[in-house]
Amino acid sequence: MKAEIITIGDELLIGQVIDTNSAWIAEQLNLVGIQVHQITSISDNRAHILIALGEAAQRVEVVLITGGLGPTKDDITKNTLCEYFNTELVFHQPSFDNVKKIFGLRGFRVTELNRKQAEVPANCTPLSNINGTAPGMWFENNGVIFVSMPGVPFEMKPMVTNEVLPMLVQKTDSNCIIHKTILTHGVGESFLAKTIESWETELPANIKLAYLPQPGIVRLRLTAFGSDNDELDIELDNQVEQLKKIIPELIFGFDDETLEMVVGRLLKERKLLIATAESCTGGYIAHLITSIPGSSDYFMGATVSYANKVKVIELEVEANDIEVCGAVSEVVVSQMALGARQKFGTDFALAVSGIAGPGGGTREKPVGTTWIALATPDKVITKKFLFGEHRGRNIRKAALAALNMLRLELLRMSAKDYLVLHK
């Protein structure tokens, strides 16, 4: 069974309000095996709403609508639904009782305008709104289910959970839909696609793969369709195990995990400490690490050595090396990492120095040039990156690349290495 979500409101189209309803509703529908075919945002315009309803009815079996159910003149959804279904508004006493109850709890007087919120199209099944005054409305017409709900998430979500989903489940015999997201770092989307091409080609017909790139990370989302939830889980797990054999070092986590979460867990399990020395990232790596609850167990501190003077004073970088090689160089970033490890007394230290942009680049060192160093107990690992020209993305990519260098080194370490560190 396929569904379409229609969000109504001029505020959505001018960027004043971000549509979070659609993402949440789509997730809930997937959980009960209903696939979202299309999401549409339209204006508070009668003709526009009528056209959208008619087109949706040709595409899907379920149409979920949010917005435009308030008491003011610009809330036209209810009247437009009456026109679409060739019916009229009637007074619904249970809905009015709910209005009076809510207003009574807030100490407000019910006006004639508020009373109108208890009017619903004659051919709908009203849905209760436990957090607001506008009832939802359920229609069935020519084999298509239409559900109209308030646009306020606080009101819409319990209506979906308590009423809409249970009613939809009763009306459908939908298959299960399960998602599994594999998180990768280290290569771009096109290179990754080429690397896993044979695996992707051999995926069963009921499993689809989507590439979801973002700065520094490519998420691979597997979606499985079927009639048995447990069988789909096993099938997805098998596919993930196959993928791990193809790109073992590129996969850092799954589903809602973050790189900083994974690195933090590894550090905590091994009882190891980390510090950072940051130039172009301006403390962003430290921010990511400390965004994880419990990070005080493994993160000691950071030096944001944005100025060269600070690199020399706080991290004991040789001033002559900065003069000869430049702040964005292997020799300087190595000294930054060693200096941070010494300063904070940690097992590891990450250091980053680069040209974030948009200015400051040269022919030899264009914008996006970044050196990252990881000081370990017995060596310094360095790597040069060329990220691009966008400042924000460069900072994000540099921070993730640094965390991934640490992750890979932690995974390479043997149990013997841990024992040596803890002597």
Structural class: alpha/beta
CATH topology descriptor of the largest domain: Molybdenum Cofactor Biosythetic Enzyme, Chain A
Through-space gap between termini: 61 Å
CATH superfamily of the largest domain: MoaB/Mog-like domain
**CATH class category of the largest domain:** Alpha Beta
Beta fraction: 15-25%
* Sheet with the most strands, sense and barrel status: 6 strands, mixed
Give the overall shape, derived from the CA principal axes: elongated
Radius of gyration from the CA trace? 28 Å
Unreliable residue runs: none
Total E-strand runs: 17
Helix content: 40-55%
Number of helices: 17
Task: Describe how the helices and strands are arranged.
Layout: E1 2-8, H1 10-13, H2 21-31, E2 35-42, H3 46-59, E3 62-66, H4 77-84, E4 89-91, H5 93-106, H6 112-115, E5 119-121, E6 125-127, E7 136-141, E8 144-149, H7 153-171, E9 176-184, H8 189-195, H9 197-201, E10 207-214, E11 217-226, H10 229-246, E12 251-254, H11 259-270, E13 274-278, H12 284-290, E14 299-304, H13 308-315, H14 319-325, H15 330-344, E15 348-354, E16 369-375, E17 380-386, H16 391-412, H17 415-421
Parallel strand pairs: 1-2, 1-3, 3-8, 13-14, 13-15
Antiparallel strand pairs: 4-5, 6-7, 7-8, 9-11, 9-12, 10-11, 15-16, 16-17
Helix pairs in contact: 2-7, 3-4, 11-16
